[in-house]
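Protein entry
_____________
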Amino acid sequence: MDRPMAFSRRGFLGTCGAALAATALPQGARAAYAPRPEGWRTFETVTRVTLPAGETGAQAWVPVPSFQAADWARPGINSFDTNGTAELVMDETQGVAFVHARWEAGVMPELTVTSTMDTQSRYVDLTPTGVTLTDAERATLTAPTDLIPTDGIVADTAAQITDGASGDLEKAQRIYDWVVTQTERNPETRGCGLGDVASMLHTGDLTGKCADLNALYVGLARAAGLPARDLYGLRVAPSAFGYSALGAGSEVVTGAQHCRAEVFLDGIGWVPVDPADVRKVVLQEDGGLSLEDAKVAEARKGLFGSAEGNWIVYNDAHDVVLPGSARDALPFLMYPQAEIDGRAQDELDPARFVYTITARQL
């Protein structure tokens, strides 16, 4: 299973390097959405956190890339600068990494975290390669989480969707098509959503954003016996295929967090799936489209089995416990977190938090 961690504890990168590459097509131009591996790209992200001084002190936790996959994701260097004390935490048990900073009472906290990561586009042709998971890996990747149960209504829904399917590939495709056709992206959802799968199915409100819709896919896949996982990360560059909804619009990527998903097909391996981005294309591209539009159909086809390398991944962890935090476990760690005097700051309101994230290609 791809998830070893690779880090460097030292060394800020210099300021040399190219600005965010203009990889998008000219405005109005479009190529068929068909990501393919075409070489590695290195991106640098810089997260800057500034907080008001606390009466008893403050803390912050800033996620950094830790997920590694040999063919598309290689974590690079992580470094930080602060007027408090900080450490790079590599939590292999939870499968996350972050910079944890602390400040004493009366200090106005400042923290800058710089990370690099190599990434490239992916394509899986869905032909057998013989790859398998161990029993332990399979158990972990079909297990429930706090917000993604695999029994009850989730199991019942998965059974209905996959009834009569001839194999794992057909099951995975059926669940993907069901999520694409039955859900909608809700622009009013804060952040990327929570991914409370059981509540979505019980209420019939199958709307939300990526952390909701792709978690729904993961939950249904796991309930159907297919190993699956959410991948939490950040868009860092425009789409090379002319889809404004599927890339970052500028070097400022403070609100560009995005959750992707994967399903493991025995004998084939990990397959990227992103039904949430299909619904994003429907809602946002060209002022709004239908599922039958050719541009949506191309994205729908491409987002099962391929993924564009204009996005970096932090981790695939659920139910994350932050050391020293007064909060309960987080559903996932994709945003900077902070507490002042033991009170959590709103990670979905970076202007009040305050934090900014910028990205550029080196």
In short: The chain has two domains: 41-119+317-361, 122-313. The first helix runs from residue 135 to 141. Residues 3-25 have pLDDT under 50 and may be disordered.
